[in-house]
Design goal:
Number of strands: 7
Radius of gyration: 15 Å
CATH class: Alpha Beta
Helix content: 40-55%
CATH topology: Rossmann fold
Oligomer: single chain
CATH architecture: 3-Layer(aba) Sandwich
Length: 187
């Protein structure tokens, strides 16, 4: 069964609309019969994502470093709960267990995860789809910055094209599904 790794916030100071978005994504991933890979937090967007996926009958794989188990209030309800020694091992396992990456709005951790997956994709280290779901323009400045860097020659145009930008949940998941239908990307 294909698995989608979702990067999102664990902050508890964000607007409720972000929690609702994460819940919608969790339900939609489960409805498509895909596994959900996440950072295994039980609070904020991470918690809403995993809980909604399981409530809709989905299978969740939560991966969290030892140091964050208590701090993030770990999602022990994950169908598969994996504790790693550090963040690098966490990201490695999330990458291994995933067939696609989806970034929701989030903070510096989400940004770092997105950029790492995207960079590896642009270097042909994997052919997994990378999608940003941005319904409220939280990534607008990043998108503009990347376009600016591309015009200055710092980022190749094809590297910019290796991420798909979406504003709706179904559009984001459709982009992932469409990428899987291409050569070398079927999970």
């Amino acid at each position: 069964m294909p698995a989608v790794c979702v990067f999102c916030a664990s902050s508890q100071t964000i607007d409720e609309r972000y929690l609702n978005l994460a819940s919608e994504v969790g339900r939609a991933v489960a409805a498509r019969g895909w596994d959900l890979v996440s950072g295994a937090g039980s609070i904020s967007m991470m918690g809403a994502l995993g809980s909604a996926a399981r409530a809709a009958g989905g299978h969740t794989i939560g991966v969290i470093p030892e140091a964050l188990v208590a701090r993030e209030v770990a999602d022990h309800d994950s169908d598969e709960f994996i504790v790693t020694r550090d963040m690098r091992q966490r990201k490695g396992i999330m990458d291994e267990r995933s067939d696609a990456f989806l970034a929701l709005p989030g903070g510096i951790g989400t940004l770092e995860e997105l950029v790492e997956a995207w960079t590896a994709r642009s270097l042909n280290m994997h052919h997994k789809p990378v999608v940003v779901l941005d319904p409220w323009g939280d990534y607008a400045h990043l998108h503009a910055l990347l376009d600016h860097w591309a015009t200055r020659g710092f980022v190749r145009a094809d590297a910019v094209a290796h991420v798909h930008w979406a504003t709706e949940v179904e559009g984001a998941l459709d982009a992932i599904a469409a990428a899987w239908c291409g050569p070398d990307t079927t999970p």
